[in-house]
Amino acid sequence: MTEPSAKPTIVRKVVVIFDVCSSTAILEDLLRTENHVAWQSVLGHLKRFFWSHGIGKSQMYKFLGDGWILLFDDQEISGSSLISLLNELSTEYDRLFRKYVETVLSNMPDNIGLTFGVDEGSLVKIVMNKQKEYVGRAINVAARLQAATKKIDGPTAGTLLISTNAYARLKLPVKGKLVVCDLANVAGGTRYRARMVRLAK
User: Fold this and answer.
1) Which of 73, 86, 98, 152 has its CA 20 to 30 A from that of 142?
2) Average pLDDT of 22-48?
3) Among 26, 75, 27, 68, CA closest to 50
4) Are the C-beta atoms of 132 and 57 separated by less than 8 Å?
5) CB 16 within 8 A of CB 116
6) Distance of CA 147 to the CA centre of its chain
7) pLDDT for 69-99, tens place per residue?
8) pTM of the entire predicted model
9) What's the CA gap between 117 and 115, in Å, rounded?
């Protein structure tokens, strides 16, 4: 018997997607040296970081292999609080990396830290298999912006790419450099204009 479909609803969200730089190299090294517990420690502490900052299950939408998709209600978060949160998150990840991972790596990657993609807009919320799921352009754009940080010249750790729309709407308290990037599989993604912010270390 199939699950009855719930009526989709439209919600407006700020979408934050972050990823761990050099995660593939780090995980391969840890697995090869049987130190994968170090990575579990980092992820466990990051989850506790979110809970301690009032970010619960409703905001932690999905855990990816090396990062999270965070969703915030449009009216719940300001640009100042978002930048403060991501600065603290970057600092906490750096601390956890030094404590649990750096000491057991056999080869240190060149690029260590987190990168972020941010957009804001309407999403379709549906329920599938008793789980809330979200579909919409803002998630796609945030994911592509996060991926685009890898193409930036120089170290990318601590880099945030945010759509110009989200940048203006959230009124970020930091000056973002206007950049042009190509976002695959996004309508209008060729020479897409975004703002680049370097988070404080």
Assistant:
1) 98
2) 89
3) 68
4) no
5) yes
6) 10
7) 999 998 889 999 999 999 999 999 999 999 9
8) 0.90
9) 7
